[in-house]
Amino acid sequence: MRKLPDNLVTAQDDKALPIHESAMKHVTGQAVYIDDMPEWPNELHVATGKSVEAFADIVSINLDKVKAYPGVVDVILQADIPGDPDVSPVLSGDMLLAGDFVHYIGQPIFAVAATSLRAAKQAVELADITYQSKAATLHPKDSLARQEFVLPTHTISCGDSKAALAQAAHTLSSDLYIKGQEHFYLEGQISVAVPNEDGGVQVFASSQHPAEVQKLVARVLDLPVAQVLVETRRMGGGFGGKESQAATLGCMAAVLAIRNRCPVKYRMPRQDDMVQTGKRHDFWNSYQVGFTQQGEIVAAEYDMVGKCGCTADLSDGVVDRAMFHADNAYFLPNARISGYRGKTHTVSNTAFRGFGGPKGVLLAENIIEEIACKVGKDALDIRKLNCYQTGKDRTPYGQQIEEDVLLTLIEELEVSSDYRARRDAIKAYNQQSPFLKKGLALTPVKFGISFTSKHLNQGGALVHVYTDGSVHVSHGGTEMGQGLYTKVAQIVAKAFGIDYQRVNVGSTRTDKVPNASPTAASAGTDLNGMAALDAANTIKERLREFAMEHFAIAADAFAIESDQVILGRETMGFPEFIKLAYMNRVSLSSTGFYKTPKIGYDRKAAKGRPFLYFANGASVSEVIVDTLTGEYKVTQVDILHDVGDSINSHIDIGQIEGAFVQGMGWLTSEELSWDDKGRITTNSPANYKIPTSADVPEKLTVKLFDRANSEESVYRSKAVGEPPLMLGISVWCALKDACASVCDYQLSPPLAAPATPEAVYYALQSAKAYQAGAKAAEQEGQEVRV
Amino acid sequence: MKFILNDRVVEETSLPSDFTALRYLREKRGLTGTKEGCASGDCGACTLLVGALEAGDVTYSTLNACITPVQSLAGKHVVSVEYLAELGDGLHPAQQAMVDAHGSQCGFCTPGFVLSLAGLYENAAVKEQGLNRESVCDAISGNLCRCTGYRPIIEAGLAMEGQQGHLLSQQDWLKAALADLDNQALATEYLRPNSLAQALAAKRQHANAEFIAGGTDLMLENTQRYKDFGVLIDLNNVAEIRQLGEQGEQLIIGAGVTYSELEDFSKTSYPQLYNLLSRIASRQIRNRGTIGGNVANGSPIADMPPILLAFDADVRLDKADGSSRVVTMSEFYLGYKQTQLADDECIVAFHISLDKLAEFHRFYKVSKRMEDDISSVLLAARFTVNEGRIEDIRLAFGGMAATPIRAQVAEACLQNVAVTDDVALQQVLQALREELKPMSDMRASAQYRLDMACSLVRKAWLELNGHTVPSFSGHPVPESWLALGQEVGQTKGANHA
């Protein structure tokens, strides 16, 4: 059995920790992204002809002018795809090119390969396509009303929510429409396919899931998977957007490369990317909660409708995860949570950091704000009252919360952020300030770590030690900026006891580590780090056995520490020792493997343990709102986040801050918009606004919660990619709190998500209207008494 | 055309007029450190530093390579990320600070940030100015990062303080090399006239030619709609449209003046204008985009036209036949994207009465994001006040109609009333609701636009009456607004100028 070293990386001086393995290359422009690779002289470029109808049968297609356009070399339709045109990641329905019908505006109908991207883009505009329109479903509310789903509904329940609601002292019922989010990775989607001499193809893909690109390329080409090699060195950001949807580009490039026997690049210009690739799901959540006079939740019934778009893509997992996180940090003794996979005639929505979780967490936090106003308490008190704790530690799906972290973490942040004093100061400020109002909120996050699809919870790695003592690591994970390569190199260096500098992590290739899971679900380090550790430990055990025999020493007399090999009383440099091992014919290469233990969810019973553990965190945000316009600024943010024993605190803090700001963007300035035909109108950074540096408060403090993972994760660390995104919810709640101030916190007014200045303005208006109504009622009451 | 690319002079004679600097670097020079993130000037991944020899010194500013025709950089020093580390021992301070602060994650936006920070470093060193959070955020206002959340990048910018070396402008060979570049004889489809007469003659000669100055809007036709331009006539060397200053009773703003130049000019004398300019686009765009371009393209959501409307600015238009005419801003717009400007005509300058500039005025912009966003609504308001009465008023809006407009019915409601007359204010607000017919789009609903038109007029009226009414900007909220007991929102006496 694997032994986990107990000297923890966090014990080291932070300054000694490695920087991102590509940092020097990033700042000098030397880091190579796929579009930076030299082009072959005969390389072709792809553009697609897009549907202008949301839902229609295709009546006729005339591509004569497209084919005749200067520079155009090849034009293909679905029928020209040699294998299966279905490029769905899990289920079916995602067609590489549309066949008889289209089901979203922007859907590719035909593809052009031309000598330049400009020629391809200019040519596709010349197509003459006629359609027979059909009635499109564009909103998840309509999907529910029409019972149009991409997959069956799933329900989780515990206790008897109906009875408990009927008996509750108070009930609230309302709904919350939560809009999605555009990934806006800075590097748009791209793949380059190069045919090989055996009829196969090599694909360079900006993908979080090279193994799936490989599988789907093989499928569309009708080739054995082994004939396809996919390589990903790095992505210029992924955030879930390149988990399933990067495959389309690899497949299209591969089909055209094989047909034309030349390299083909498919790079989506930003506007195509924003129109043709899926986003974070919108969710329409309706809810009914029952609670006591004190604000303790006794019952909850949630109906959560995800806007999945035209196909399933990864929506089953996304809606499941939204349901699994509708409790967030709070115990629901009686609950029914139903998740609907709404079908709409819009682009198929996909993974995005948090994978549905944020839509559950925001629902929970919205409810807490409303309960607090209803019972006249501070929202933090309602949070603490309902927080999972001893005796209140079972989730609606039956998993026990085994770690006692959440409440401790919340209380630590409550003190360190000076929450109570600031609350008092804000109330005093709001009473005195006519135009500006402040808001404050502390929101926690509890996020389940493991893929909810059990089979994906496996990782593979391949470690080689060369005769000079240098080490090469390959693993199934991909680098998208999150520092996975750096962490895996640290893990391997630590496992061997050697300098970090000796370890090189190579690009992710499907011929090095097969059948790898996507780098997703925050599990990159957990799975691949463990697999690399396993491989390193295997080699180290061989070295130990060799040393015992060669130097006639006991097993415990062998060690490698600080780059020195300890052989009883003697020491030897690592390169020297490795050379000796090689001369004595010791195998210096090994694969490694890991599968997550303990997990399993019984879908029929809707009970089980989907997650190995939970990552936790909390954030306090303070905002100031201009009540005349709804404009606002975030003025202070304090974060405390649980990453277990951090492997690299620089990288972890970077992940936390970046996720926070991305979550804040989702709920503030980033607003997706569609017109009534189903056309996305936010198709460019000119009209879709992610945060800039000026949106980030100067007072931004991030601290790591200092406690090891109680589960045997890699060096007792915890996953960090997704959970802190939900810390951004504290900004939304603080805005809601500021709006509530204008009606003296009698009502937490409905606030749209995202809370654009417009949304905040109308939340303020409804709070003002409530206050005016309350005042009028009060005066009426007084008159009656007189 | 010739320019200096990093450390060498390059000459190109056969490029299409609209060939962008980004494509040039990546496709013709293999300098792939400069990235395409959006090809619309919105993300900054393609940021370059460009040095120009002016009055004996080389000064650097940033721009978006993705929407800049490379030929517009003739005679300039173009600096890409690959060159910075070659300026001295080790990394450039901007690069080293980014590494030390963990300022890169995926790395795709990083070269753009490095160049924006290197530009800040260069200018701070040359002008001997310290670095602060405001100047760092200003420098990177056009750079989007999706990974880091910016904190470490801002920290990197601040950490450049006190660093030395790696200065572009202090290279011995550079000034002479720039002075030696001869771009006179090279005629392609990219024309660079040196006078207004030449420019207008060229326009007459080439019927389908387009004028280009900053190109920050025009080039989107090329990079987003894939239109191939023929002849482009670059106006940046035309001195007649580059004037900026007070002449007699007027402020003259040449059509070719960039936002950044107007920003510098207005910093001390015209704080309202200065503050509003900081809300227009990003630093990279403001370095290139011109006031004339903003007006000429006829967009209803451009920010300069309402300001010019509020001051009753005159627009001077010249033709190739030597004729010149002046139209007022209120006559300039004819309809959506339609203006008075004839095909063979060029905007020369905007003339604003200094008297009107001295009157009480306020500009407010509402958008989803503080930095680099297009207005949902913009109000430019000016009040002529005499002895407590409003003698004249201008309420000019962007985002409220097919063109930038004045709300003349509403204006009439405040004509000749006491500044404190809140009944008249209510009438104005009512009139605005009847007069303005905005539309809903991805930036704002019609209802919100209308509500904001009213809110902003109310804001201006409150300020006219001496209330301190805060408006947020890209800058941090002033401490005085955050502190309890401050006089925010309170009257501090009438303020009519």
Describe the structure.
The complex is a heterodimer of chains A (786) and B (497). With 786 residues, chain A is an alpha+beta fold. Chain A is built from 19 helices and 29 strands. Among the domains of chain A are: 9-31 and 458-595, 2-Layer Sandwich (Aldehyde Oxidoreductase, domain 4); 136-392, Aldehyde oxidase/xanthine dehydrogenase, molybdopterin binding domain (Aldehyde Oxidoreductase, domain 4, 2-Layer Sandwich), CATH 3.30.365.10. Chain A has an 8-stranded mixed sheet with strand order 3-5-1-12-9-10-11-20. Chain A has a 5-stranded mixed sheet with strand order 7-15-14-13-8, with helices on both faces. In chain A, α10 (357-375) runs parallel beside α18 (729-741) and α14 runs parallel beside α15. With 497 residues, chain B is α+β, with helices and mostly antiparallel strands. Chain B folds into 3 domains: 1-184, Beta-grasp domain (Ubiquitin-like (UB roll)); 189-358, Uridine Diphospho-n-acetylenolpyruvylglucosamine Reductase, domain 3 (2-Layer Sandwich); 366-497, CO dehydrogenase flavoprotein, C-terminal domain (Enolase-like, domain 1, 2-Layer Sandwich). Helices cover 34% and strands 20% of the residues of chain B. Chain B has helices spanning 21-28, 81-84, 93-100, 110-126, 133-139, 151-159, 172-180, 196-205, 218-223, 259-269, 271-277, 283-288, 291-296, 304-310, 329-332, 354-357, 408-414, 422-435, 446-464, 479-482, and strands spanning 2-5, 8-11, 47-54, 57-64, 77-79, 190-191, 210-212, 232-234, 244-247, 250-254, 314-319, 324-328, 333-335, 338-339, 345-353, 360-366, 377-386, 389-398, 405-406, 417-418. In chain B, a hairpin with a 2-residue loop joins β1 (2-5) and β2 (8-11). In chain B, α3 packs across α4 (110-126) and α3 crosses α6. Chains A and B meet through α1, α3, α13, β28 and α17 of A and α2, α3, α4, α5 and α6 of B.
